[in-house]
Records
---
Amino acid sequence: MRNHDRLSAIGYRLSARRSTAYSWLLILPPLALTAFFSIYPFIVAVDASTHRILLTRPKKQPYIGLDNFREVLRVAEFRDAAVNTAVFAAMTVPAVTLLGLGVALLLNQRLPGFGLLRWIVLLPWAIPLVGAGTMWRLLLHGNTGALNGLLLELGIIDEYITWLSRPTLAMVAVTMAHLWREFPLAAILFLAGRQAIASELYDVARIDGAGAFALFRDITLPLLRPTLLIVLVYETVVSMSVFDLLYVLTGGGPGSATTVLAWYTYATTFKFYNLGQGAALSLLMAAAILVVIVLYTYILPAKEERR
Amino acid sequence: MARQDVTRFVGSGLGGALTRRDVLRGGAALGLGATAFRGRRAAAQDPIQLDFMSWSYSVETIQDNIAKFQALNPGITVNYTDFPWFDYPDVMAARFLGDNAPDVAYNSDHWLTQWADADWVVPLDDNCPNLMAYAADFAPYAIQGMTYDGKLYGLPYYADLVVFFHNAAMAEQAGFSTAPQTWDEVRDQAQAMKEKGIVEYPVNIPLAKADPWTIEFFYSMVYSEGGHFFDESNEPVFNQAGGPAEKVLQWLHDAINTWKIMNPAALEVVEPDVVKSLVAGQSASTVLAKYNLAAVNTTDGAHKGKFKLALMPGSTHETTGFVRFYTLTRHAVDRGAEALDAACKFLDYNGGKTDGVYVVQKRWAIEKGLGFAVLPLYDDPEVAASIASWGDVALEREQATKARIKEGLTAWWGTWDVFAREQIHNAVSGSTAPAEALKAMADKWTELRGYYGG
């Protein structure tokens, strides 16, 4: 018996080792890919951020420590870009979330045609960002834009509005375009979350005399908390790193009115040819986004509260 | 089998017995034939492939020029790619950095110092010395714009001036029979046109942030007031309080926001938009490259032929002269002697003479009204007649004597230009005061100079 137990133990250990080895074998390829496409570029970025790298003089790359970080943090352009990013995120994240939630609740109604409407609502999100930006630029052009033409015909304005030539209006224009592009995804996520809530909960609450607002406040909103966290985190990351839309729509302009951190990082690297500072800016952006995500997870735990 | 048996065996198939001598003769014949065949393959060798890149302007004309060049040089095939003007410097930088550069490319005095400093482009002196003789025919500002570190870096595509032109008929309608001589007069004439309902926004100057033209228009307006950007040691002087640069930014801001005589979308529009606006009679005056005068005066419409060239308004009437040129890249040199020779021939055809005539430059001048760097073309009767049909040869030559190239063309000027355009926008849109914008531009210049060790 003792020998049998000993043999069983040995066999178990061998089996466990084989199982562990097999597990490692299975996850090594995706791990290697992740390391190559995520960890390696990150290491390269950190290295680049500590060197003076001018793309027009690639042979000279002296080590300068944290000078790139000091230089970018010191200039007014970085502060302006950071403020623009914060303003843009503060405007778009709540707007996308609220609009997405509203549309989701509307689409949840079982009315004729709403099945097709669910697909149509997704269309803006399906359009590539560059296409969306080009479309909005044509719509908002100060001399020939279709939106101006429509507003003029309806008598809402007396003369064309130069959406993209005025600093404040340009930020509004970018916000509008971003909202139009992003709310469908939020709507679909909220719709999926809403439809996962058991209808019996609503039935019981109605029997107890709960009105529409009470149903929303006490059932829908708490049970949508996990989805809300996903939407908030995702939309915050997207709004803090928005680039494609801005590249096509305003190029960060007029002047620096719509220059956000992502555009500023791009311009520093590919227009000012300063790869070292661009790398420093990317790391600062990544750190800022990480802080915001961590804050969200503390403020909005994913577990829903049940009363 | 014995050797003799083999030959008999082969010979029986050929209608008779073969001797050893026959076999040897046959073998020699086969060998000679193989060599001849190889020789014919060498003669019909693949042509040299040359890569040429330019920005997108009159692409069909460029393609036709290439076809003509290839007909004259059957051993060379040109692969042509074009990119939008606004993206051109960024695309070319990416190409140079990614080791995917063309052999020959369009270049501009905007970017020569930056590209030459990076060793992306190479001088003709060292690589196509036979082309240096053409320099004797070039206008001085064109040579300046194509020279870096004392060496010539290309042959001209075209050289032209930034000019002021206006719809003389509209000015006449508003009660003005002469062109404005100062920017105050431009304002007065525009206000009169607006008040009389002739045109709502008479002045239209394209100032798009992404457009490399914007800095040239700004330079021209500052030069017209006798202003300077940098001194001999490339120190900024444009930021002097109350100086011409500050006045120009203030004028542009007021023209849009206060007097409302300038297109309020000026910060979005580009050259083709302004040309269409002028042709349609929705604008009356502008600051543009001179070749646009040909475009507006030859396009059918109610205002065809009504636009007149005027000296740049301002106290000195000075303006910017610029040159765009064909440049040879390091890539062409690295490919070896054959590719380099082909590239030099391509440069020669486009920027030099064919049968004693500057064929391509003359074509651009006659068909598109582009200015030219080669002074003898002014004496060509066909060219003179073409200019006279839409322009003013005498006034053009007078303006040319008051043309200066852009000051400060250093290795970091191209980078500074991108930042400067952003600050011009900030000042014109009212985000910052002109003095503040100019200070930011000066500070950026100093920062970049520090990086490049200038």
Note: Chain A has one domain: 77-299.
---
Amino acid sequence: MSRDFTPKVITANALVEGDVVYLTEDDSWTRDLTQAALLTDEADAEARFLEASARTETVVGVYLADAAPGPNGPEPTHFREEFRRTGPSNYHHGKQAETASRA
Amino acid sequence: MYDYTEFDAAFVAQRNRQFRAQVERRISGALTEDEFKPLRLMNGLYLQLHAYMLRVAIPYGTLNGAQMRQLAMIAERWDKGYGHFTTRQNIQFNWPRLRDVPDMLDALAQVNMHAIQTSGNTIRNVTADHFAGAAADEVADPRPVAELIRQWSTDHPEFQFLPRKFKVAVTGSGNDRAVIRAHDIGIQIVEKNGALGYRLIVGGGLGRTPMIGKVLRDFVSQDDLLPYLEATVSVWNLLGRRDNKYKSRIKITVHEHGIEDIRARVEARFSLIRPSFTGVDVALFEEIRAAFAPPAFRDESTAIYETARRTDPIFRSWSDTNLAAHRAPGHAIVQISLKAHGATPGDATAEQMRVMAELAETYGHDELRISHEQNVILPHVHKSDLPAIHATLKKHGLATANIGLISDIIACPGMDYCALATARSIPVAQQIATRFDELKLEHDIGELKIKISGCINACGHHHVGHIGILGLDRAGVENYQITLGGDGTQDAAIGDRTGPGFAYDQIIPAIERIIAAYLEHRDGPQESFLATYRRLGMAPFKAALYEPRDAVAAE
């Protein structure tokens, strides 16, 4: 029997900048996890993952990451995704230091 | 220092042109990521957690002022104003954009540097004793032979698709500062009947299956060295496991076949290929050796140094910990700590890089070294210049007097940067350093090497730390295993695991309990942590870690 499906977001790194991106409801890429589509249906998640993986002209290393619903949108459930969302913890660096989100 | 020949420069320029075109084709969509990835890895470009990372080779950890200044320029122009010096004597830039990398490589080429073979299943950047050419205890400077091996291994047609990566380290001293017993091949320069030659050690390595290397041959003469190395890598290239990446390194091949079997195969291969080495390599070695002739050392008074030691306690403390014995009278080897308490081990800002370049140019015969312990070395300094050097270092946060002490920690980038990491390592190092600085115990504790890795691949050399810390992901939470008694020197040893690991917020108190046990049980301040551990074994430390006394626990 398959395990219960836990909600996921689709994430990758941007091809040119290398920074962390997430797939939105309208199939664009955002730098902001709260704007990501939270996928709760396994078949839908698989289909959108395959479609996103084919977009190698814009992103690298597409995968499904566990996430949970939060008051402002999806939130990470694992510390690795927490660091990917914010940036390194030794410096105020990366996404946490960026004021405006880039498209 | 070795200067690029026309051939070297043309080779690097051609590779850079090729890579620029490959990047353009990737961005245009003409190359897929699957096609591009091996190409970028051949040029040292990784994709990490938050960004690309460019790993630049610093062959045998040696560079000059102009090269250091160029690294500073690159850090400011295309990165976030700093670089990270690594346990393989390289520098990593953590934030390059793909589009900028070809320009970064061209900027490196301007100062005879590149990122070739800093990744992939090839022979990687050759490392060496960071005191090479300066140490009082060395038989010969290991850099000429390291440069010879660099030239032999760069783009070597037989060795571009090895079963796995392959790392070579060289020492010219019996006091091993290059961790040669934890490398695929470790080379020690030795003297026999008045002739210099090489002792070859094979099959060492850390990672998932740590092994101490075994002696392959006690003495290899200069003219036999390259054919012998080539025979060794050839034997492994054919025999090495390509079916399982966890069993592909030569340490596993040696372990599975036994050193006698490997030695017999290497000797057979060596006999076969030896005639094809016609002596060109020996002639080349002599040319290279001439390029590494020692600078003209000054003969003058060291009175200023003696006076500064008497009158300035901060200078005295720094010179007690951060200097090493130099081969020339009146001179010292200066170790610049990149481990200010609370800072990220191995990081230097562009401004700090320029300061170190300036000091090397002004006082140090234009030479700098990067140590595998993630510090920077001025190898040739006259002692009369030390007070001025110290004053400059102090102004730029580079005068921390902690070399070889508890806060001089090796830490891999860990989960703050690395895509392979299973836990963070940098913040653990920061907190240990800060805590023992607050306790003012560092100098009392004395020599102690803590090494931290954020995953089982062991870039932080935790297996050979006197105290090793390995960060793992246990059910979605960071967890840290501790090993004790590891040693990366000529007496190399793999540390022993203490027992169950500790949560992120428990690892610093755990280290404190180990140190308290050491201070309690040592046979006076002259007995180091490692010596105490070797005398007493695990028991008192295990008791301190897992059976805290109420009085201690309540503190």
Note: The radius of gyration of chain B is 23 Å.
